[in-house]
């Protein structure tokens, strides 16, 4: 490990977000900061066969500008895949987006103006905060686990509510069935849009998935879905992020509004990627790779938590997440500043994400997000060993 190189690089960067986003480029550093899938999970040869077949057999779909709302075959397939438990969706309920990130961006474009209120699960996903920052919204944090949390009060008077119910980024928290039901009920009562951002919905390691809020909402009415949930999915975590395929499932009028915004954004999502996404679902490839992803990540989650128990137990509190990609740890010592910890950690050759970036006010300085999907168990253990040295050094200063 070349410590002077880390130190030189540190002095060149001041912005905390830039610090951890670009830290992965430093050689020898153990990067536990990002939310990246392990590249070994990508079915490279199957995807290259699908890409070649898409161009050869469907050149118009793959190579022309695609329809703004997405290829009809893919919209139909998503509608069918999400039509569970008596719920009925058609392609009018579906918009294909350029990753889940574009869905967040479009929501901001169509629903926010300066000073708009957002009720956001706290701590909140950095990408969403970044996407909405240009609109200068005001956040009303939602702490779903708090005893006095009242969903109707939380959703009253806001433009929309934002949640990541499955293994939230960054907290790794699973929103319970009762909490989902209460949020859906509140969205119907108040008429407030409820954004359900769900990149980790297939990554359950210990139990069967809970019902989506989209499904709970759709069960309340018969016929085509026309309710308040705006559901967002993506292929980034269950197939490959470079495809940049995401989707929104929502009421047809919301889809139409988002289509107009997408037209002024990128015209269309890559037809080639959409065709590959369609064929991956239709051929069973997406379902086929999932068990391997689950067993790999489950073992890594266990290795990380075992290393944390061995080294960090007296310094941090955390819950073992039952899915997703992250452990959220909070320092026992209230004076811990995890922005400072990040600098010490980089000096030791490990990168984690400090909680300040997940707080719209940048105030929360006591927690960290640790990713467990990118590194093998030995690297995770070494990363925690380095982090422990860094945490003790931070407290000593
Ligand atoms: N929402 C959340 C909560 C995420 O964690 C991510 C990925 N980090 C996204 C949306 C966007 O993912 P993508 O654009 O790769 O689909």
UniProtKB/TrEMBL annotation:
Pfam families: Aminotran_1_2
Domain Aminotransferase class I/classII large residue range list: 56-386
InterPro entries attached to this UniProt entry: Aminotransferase_I/II_large, Class-I_PLP-dep_aminotransf, PyrdxlP-dep_Trfase, PyrdxlP-dep_Trfase_major, PyrdxlP-dep_Trfase_small
Keyword Ubl conjugation: no
Any one GO MF annotation of this record: transaminase activity
Matches recorded under Gene3D superfamilies: Aspartate Aminotransferase, domain 1, Type I PLP-dependent aspartate aminotransferase-like (Major domain)
GO biological process, one term: alpha-amino acid metabolic process
UniProt superkingdom: Bacteria
Cofactors demanded by this protein: pyridoxal 5'-phosphate
Record key words, sorted: Aminotransferase, Pyridoxal phosphate, Transferase
PANTHER family reported for this sequence: AMINOTRANSFERASE, KYNURENINE_ALPHA-AMINOADIPATE AMINOTRANSFERASE, MITOCHONDRIAL
The protein's name in its UniProt record: 2-aminoadipate transaminase
Source organism per UniProt: Sulfitobacter brevis
Species classification: Bacteria, Pseudomonadati, Pseudomonadota, Alphaproteobacteria, Rhodobacterales
């Amino acid at each position: 490990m070349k410590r002077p190189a880390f130190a030189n690089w540190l002095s060149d960067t001041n912005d905390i977000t830039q610090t951890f986003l670009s830290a992965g480029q430093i050689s020898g550093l153990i990067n536990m900061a990002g939310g990246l899938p392990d590249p070994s999970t990508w079915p490279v040869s199957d995807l290259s066969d699908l890409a070649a077949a898409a161009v050869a057999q469907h050149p118009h779909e793959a190579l022309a500008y695609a329809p703004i709302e997405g290829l009809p075959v893919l919209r139909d397939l998503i509608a069918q895949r999400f039509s569970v438990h008596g719920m009925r969706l058609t392609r009018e309920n579906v918009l294909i987006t350029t990753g889940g990130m574009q869905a967040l961006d479009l929501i901001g474009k169509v629903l926010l103006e300066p000073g708009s209120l957002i009720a956001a699960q706290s701590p909140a996903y950095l990408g969403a905060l970044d996407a909405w920052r240009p609109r200068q919204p005001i956040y009303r944090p939602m702490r779903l686990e708090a005893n006095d949390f009242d969903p109707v009060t939380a959703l009253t008077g806001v433009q929309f509510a934002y949640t990541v119910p499955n293994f939230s980024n960054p907290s790794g928290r699973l929103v319970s069935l009762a909490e989902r039901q209460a949020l859906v009920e509140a969205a119907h009562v108040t008429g407030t849009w409820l954004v359900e951002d769900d990149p980790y919905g297939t990554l359950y390691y210990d139990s069967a998935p809970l019902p989506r809020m989209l499904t709970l909402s759709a069960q309340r009415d018969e016929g085509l879905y026309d309710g308040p949930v705006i559901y967002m999915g993506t292929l980034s975590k269950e197939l490959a992020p470079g495809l940049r395929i995401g989707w929104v499932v929502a009421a047809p009028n919301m889809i139409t509004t988002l289509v107009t915004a997408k037209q002024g954004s990128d015209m269309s999502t890559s037809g080639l990627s959409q065709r590959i996404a369609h064929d991956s679902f239709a051929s069973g490839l997406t379902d086929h790779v999932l068990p391997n992803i689950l067993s790999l990540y489950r073992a890594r989650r266990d290795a990380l938590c075992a290393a944390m128990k061995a080294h960090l137990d007296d310094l941090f509190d955390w819950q073992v997440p039952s899915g997703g990609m992250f452990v959220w740890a909070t320092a026992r010592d209230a004076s811990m500043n995890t922005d400072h910890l990040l600098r010490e950690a980089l000096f030791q050759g490990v990168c984690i994400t400090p909680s300040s970036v997940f707080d719209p006010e940048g105030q929360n300085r006591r927690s960290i997000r640790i990713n467990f999907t990118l590194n093998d168990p030995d690297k995770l253990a070494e990363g925690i060993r380095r982090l422990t040295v860094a945490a003790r050094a931070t407290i000593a200063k």
